[in-house]
Amino acid sequence: MNDLDTAMIRAHEMGDRAALIALYAQAAGGAQDLDAACFYLTHAYVFALEAGALEAKTLHARLVAHGREA
Q1: Res 1: pLDDT
Q2: Which residue ranges make up each domain of the chain?
Q3: Residues 31, 61 contacting (CB under 8 angstroms)
Q4: Under a CB-based contact definition with an 8 Å cutoff, are residues 15 and 38 in contact?
Q5: Dist. CA 2–CA 30, nearest whole Å
Q6: In this predicted model, what pLDDT tens digit does every residue of 34-47 receive, in sequence order?
Q7: Strand, coil or helix: what is 15?
Q8: Is the CB of residue 25 less than 8 Å from the CB of residue 41?
Q9: Is the pLDDT of residue 30 over 70?
Q10: Could you give the CA distance from residue 21 to residue 59 in angstroms, rounded to a whole number?
Q11: How far from chain centre, in Å, is Cα 59?
Q12: Rounded to the nearest 5 degrees, what angle is found at the Cα of 9, between the Cα atoms of 3 and 10?
């Protein structure tokens, strides 16, 4: 398991939404293909919405840019 996976698991265990947003956004940036990137972006976006985080707007814009959200 790589460091990013380990950090994601720990953030889930701790309920650390800020870390989850950042880690999933980071995973999207390093994804091997667009589908994987959008999978991670969607998770980051949902966590941001749940947390009322400002990042939600940027994450949404990235999903729209990839044709994943209207």
Answers
A1: 59
A2: 3-65
A3: no
A4: no
A5: 13
A6: 999 999 999 999 99
A7: coil
A8: yes
A9: yes
A10: 9
A11: 8
A12: 90
For the stretch 5-29, pLDDT in tens is 999 999 999 999 999 999 999 999 9
Give helix 55-65 / helix 34-51 axis angle, nearest 10°: 150
CA–CA separation, 53 and 30 (whole Å): 22
Q: Let me know: does 29 contact 59? Beta carbons within 8 Å.
A: no
Q: Which residue do the tokens 């091997």 mark?
A: 32
Report the alpha-carbon distance of residue 42 to residue 17 in Å, rounded: 14
DSSP 42: H
Would the pTM of this model clear 0.85, i.e. be above it?
yes
Amino acid at 16: D
Q: Which band of pLDDT confidence, cut at 50, 70 and 90, is reported for residue 69?
A: confident
Q: How far apart are CA 10 and CA 14, in angstroms?
A: 6
